[in-house]
Specification:
The chain has 295 residues and is α+β, with helices and mostly antiparallel strands. The chain has helices at 2-31, 37-40, 49-56, 59-85, 87-93, 100-119, 121-139, 143-154, 157-178, 215-226, 235-244, 256-275; strands at residues 184-187, 192-197, 207-213, 230-233, 249-250. α4 (59-85) packs antiparallel against α6 and α5 (87-93) runs antiparallel to α6.
Length: 295
């Protein structure tokens, strides 16, 4: 008996090591190999009975229960089938002599293990796709998690709105600070005001230093009056400048002639104040504004 046990150790070791290697390769093929001491640490939450009850009646628990029932049914059914199919070989063991009976028993056992293991491939074919789908589903974020992540990444809408408001206010303050540098304010008397600057030795073309509508337009005019800057009503030109030119940008080429007329009119007003004579007039209805720049 001792010699027989010694002879059994090596074949059994081969079977066990083969099963171990197959289990490691199978698990690594599906999810990879990850070592984590944190996962091995004990957790008090796992000892909570309420959490245990939730896990018992969760979807994962029902799936594991069905898998266990299927495994038991497959293994039991295959074992019963193999025992019935191998009755002759099992009866033959009692008539075999040592050590042939030991090797014969090992052959029967090996066949049992291989065939029962192969029967579990049915469970594997169902379980692996389900595990992959479940893992991908668990990685998905809920709508609330997506909203929270968007807020963390992009910032809260209230904060962003407040920042934009402060930025607009800062831009308006800078714009108002540039109004005293303007040479003329072109206005639509009801709504628009555009401040133009033209320094012959500095600017290649007239530049819009400030613009606004309604309340902002009135504020620009107040600053212009306080700094003795000419205010010229020219509604078509004011609307065209407001809609086509951004702050600190040169006016479009199509408005050069019209703006030149305004600047010439301002120069004539300055001469009129110094020397007197006939007061100059500006015919805003005759300003050459291209159709594509009219608003």
């Amino acid at each position: 008996a001792g010699g027989a046990l010694v002879n059994l150790l090596f074949p059994l070791f081969l079977i066990l090591i083969t099963v171990f290697v197959a289990a490691v390769i199978g698990a690594a093929g599906v999810g990879g190999i990850n070592f984590s001491m944190q996962a091995a640490m004990p957790k008090a939450s796992k000892l909570n009975p309420l959490s245990g009850i939730k896990r018992m009646f969760g979807l994962q628990s029902w799936v594991e229960l069905l898998k266990s029932i299927l495994k038991v049914a497959l293994v039991s059914g295959m074992a019963i089938y193999l025992i019935q199919a191998s009755q002759h070989d099992l009866m033959q063991l009692s008539m075999d002599v040592y050590p042939q009976n030991i090797f014969h028993a090992l052959d029967i056992l090996l066949n049992f293990i291989l065939l029962i293991s192969c029967s579990l491939l049915i469970v594997v074919a169902i379980d692996i796709p389900f595990q992959i789908w479940q893992h991908a589903d668990q990685l998905k974020m809920t709508k609330q998690e997506v909203k929270d992540e968007f807020k963390d990444t992009e910032g809260k809408p209230e904060v962003k709105g407040r920042i934009r408001m402060l930025q607009r206010e800062a831009a308006q303050r800078r714009m108002m600070a540039d109004v005293p540098q303007a040479d003329v304010i072109v206005t639509n008397p009801e709504h628009f005001s555009v401040a133009l600057r033209y320094k012959q030795n500095q600017d290649k073309a007239p530049i819009v230093v400030a613009k606004g509508v309604d309340h902002m337009a009135m504020k620009i005019r107040e600053i212009a009056r306080a700094n003795d800057i000419y205010i010229v009503p020219a509604p078509p030109l004011a609307r065209a400048l407001y809609h086509t030119t951004e702050l600190e940008q040169q006016i479009p080429d199509g408005l050069f002639t019209a703006v030149a007329q305004v600047l010439a009119y301002v120069f004539q007003l300055k001469q009129y104040r110094k020397r007197g004579g006939e007061r100059p007039k500006l015919q805003d209805s005759n300003m050459p504004i291209p159709p594509d720049l009219r608003h």
